[in-house]
C-alpha cells in the first residue's frame, strides 16, 4: 500500500471514525521514534520479530494498546504518541469536534494491521509527509472553535457608571428626590426579578396609597422588601422619622431598607438598630459590581421607565439619557439602542 493509497483509505473512513487521524499519526511517530525507516522491515510481523509485543502493562494488567519491548530492555507504548496527537488537534488547534477518545482509539490499533504493514516499509521522508498530510486534512476538515475576543461585544456596566457618576442633585424642572428614588427602584427590580416592584412619584404619600415604603416589592400578596429612599446624607436626628416604617416592615416580616446617599456618623448604626438595613451609594456599588450585563441592562431600563412613565419628567429623562449615551461612548460602545422600548417591557412587570 502506497502512502497515497493509505491516505485515501484513511480519508474515506474519517467521517465515521475521526479518531483514526490521531491513531495514524501515533503510528507514524511510534515508528519514527524507533527509526524503522533505517531497519528495512518488510512487514509489521517482521517488525514484531525485532520489537516483540508485550501482553502486559508495567502494572501487570492486560495490555490493550500496542506495547513493544526494545532491545535495551525498555518498553514503548503507543498511548503517549496518541495523546500527543489528540493534544495537537484539541488543545493546540481547538478542533473540539475531534473526539477525546484515547482509550478507545489506542485499543483499536489491531484493526489497522494493513496500515501497520505499510508504515514500517516507508522511508523517513514518506512518514513525515504522510503525517503532515493527515494533520492538514484534520485542520482543514474540522472547524476551529478557538475563542475570538472580537466576536464578543462587551457591554459597558451602565448602571454601575450611573451609581458612580450620575448627579442625583435635583436639577431645574426635576422633582426633588426623583433621581435617587428611580435608581433604587432600578436596583431592586434588577436584583429581585422574582418579585413585583411597586413605585409611584416622589411625594405621593405611601400611607395614602396604602403602601409601606417608597418602593415595595411583593411576592404575591406578601410584602417581601420595602425601601425608604432619602436623597441626602442621613443624620442621626433623621432616624426617629423612620420608626413607623421599621415597625411596619417588621410586623409584616419584610426586609426593610433605608437607602440614603450616605450616612453621617452614628446614623447607620441607629438605622440598623431599628432592625432594617442601611444602604448608601457605596453599598449599592459593591453589589452592582458583581452583576452581569443582563442585570445592568434591566436596572438601567427600569430607571428610564421610572423617569418617563412614573415621574413623567422630561428634564430627568433627558439628563439620564444624555448621561447614558456619554458613558457608553466613553467605553467605545453604543448605548442601549432603544432604552425606552426596554423600559416599556419593564413597565408591565412594575405596574
Descriptive account of the structure:
By secondary structure, the chain is an alpha/beta fold. It folds into 2 domains: 139 residues, no CATH class; 193 residues, 3-Layer(aba) Sandwich (Trna Endonuclease, Chain: A, domain 1). The protein is 49% helix and 11% strand. It is built from 15 helices and 7 strands. The longest helix is centred in the middle third of the chain and has 18 residues. It is elongated, with a radius of gyration of 35 Å. The protein starts with a helix and ends with a helix. The model has no long low-confidence stretch (mean pLDDT 90).
Can I get a quick summary?
It is built from 15 helices and seven strands. The chain is α/β, with parallel strands linked by helices. It folds into two domains: 3-141, no CATH class; 158-350, Trna Endonuclease, Chain: A, domain 1 (3-Layer(aba) Sandwich).
Helical stretch tally: 15
What is the percent of helical residues?
Answer: 40-55%
The average pLDDT score comes to: 90
Order of helices and strands: HHHEEHHHHHHEEEHEHEHHHH
- What structural class is derived from the secondary structure elements? alpha/beta
Examine the secondary-structure arrangement and name the CATH architecture of the largest domain.
Answer: 3-Layer(aba) Sandwich
**C-alpha geometry:** elongated
**Number of extended strands:** 7
Strand arrangement across the biggest beta sheet: 3-4-5-6-7
* Low-confidence sequence ranges: none
Beta content: 5-15%
